Amino acid sequence: MPSLGSMSPIASAHHWPEELPVAAVRFARATTALDECRRFYDKVVGLEVLHEFRDHDGYDGVVLGLPDSSVQLELIRSGHQPGAEPHAENALVLYLEDDGAALRSRLPEDVELLVPHNPYWARLGAFAIVDPDGWHVLAVPASDLDDRDPSDVEVMPFSGDRHDLLGLFRRAEDSETALASYLHDGRVWVARAPSGEAVGHLQAVASNDGTTWEILNTAVDDRWQGRGIGRRLVDRAVDEARAAGATRLEVATAAADTGNLRFYQRCGMRFSRVVRDRFGPETGYPDALDVDGIPLLDQVWFERAL
After folding, report:
1. CB atoms within 10 A of CB 120
2. C-alpha 260: how far from its chain's center?
3. What pLDDT, on a 0 to 100 scale, did the predictor assign at position 13?
4. What is the 3-state secondary structure (H, E, C) of 72-128?
5. Torsional sign, CA 181, 184, 186, 188
6. Rg (alpha carbons) of the chain, rounded to whole number
7. Could you tell me whether strands 71-77 and 25-30 are parallel, antiparallel, or unpaired per DSSP bridges?
8. What residue segments make up the domains of the chain, in order of their start?
């Protein structure tokens, strides 16, 4: 199910809407290790201690935050046992203005750098650390992406281990069973940034008689979308197919993925057929999947004459 992805970086907002005149935001959490957590967020993470209190109606606590106090974290301790259990998906996310070196330099030896559980954060170059209660803090380094020219990205054949590209392949395929069945088929091209990172890919396979090429899987990293890289990958497939003597290029995607429907038509492809109920448990896809609220059920095929 080829896809260019649907997630996009967080947008900056400088003002709360008029109908919600918020002066500050505070996240409050109970802990049984107040003193240890205070040191962690003050000395390791680097948040400023804004306020501390003891035996306030039976509660001890500390409020930490940014210098302008607009965003705060409150940790409290009482006679009650906290109910929520730490989990890798529950995290305080810090969008940094540097590459994270300053934070990493403050980490004690017993604080381990972790790869985020959600691969989206890993693709952004984020790292995770865990506080004394087991809650995750994600540090997302500043990106200089806007200063990069997408024309510096080079599309080239890929001959390495395709497992190295699984992150990209999985962006376009929700069924591990289906992915395993075709991962090593056909040919693959990657779009490489100047750093050498693969920021997009396309996999295509020729029919037995060579007259038709099918795009099996293609995706572009979230950070590089909207820069024409997906179109360049498709254009490369068109050129390679023509050079090999093919007369038609095909691709299938989900009827629910409106972004892909627009993209492939902009690439000069036209609807050819619909396969109803292609996506479901019986074909290796999780039940009740949706794309932007649209149930993932039917498959749409496109073709382009070469």
Report:
1. 15
2. 17
3. 44
4. EEEEEECCCCCCCCCCCCCEEEEECCCCCHHHHHCCCCCCCCECCCCHHHHHCCCEE
5. positive
6. 24
7. parallel
8. 25-140, 147-305
How far separated are the first and last CA of the chain, in Å rounded?
22
CATH placement of domain 147-305: 3.40.630.30
pLDDT tens digit sequence for 224-280: 887 889 999 999 999 999 999 999 999 999 998 888 999 999 999 999 999 999 888
Tokens read off for 280? 């479901």
Does the fold of domain 147-305 match that of domain 25-140?
no
More confident residue, 205 or 61: 205
What is the pLDDT confidence band of residue 204, given thresholds at 50, 70 and 90? very high
- Pairing between β-strand 187-192 and β-strand 299-305 as defined by DSSP bridges: unpaired
CATH class of 25-140: alpha beta
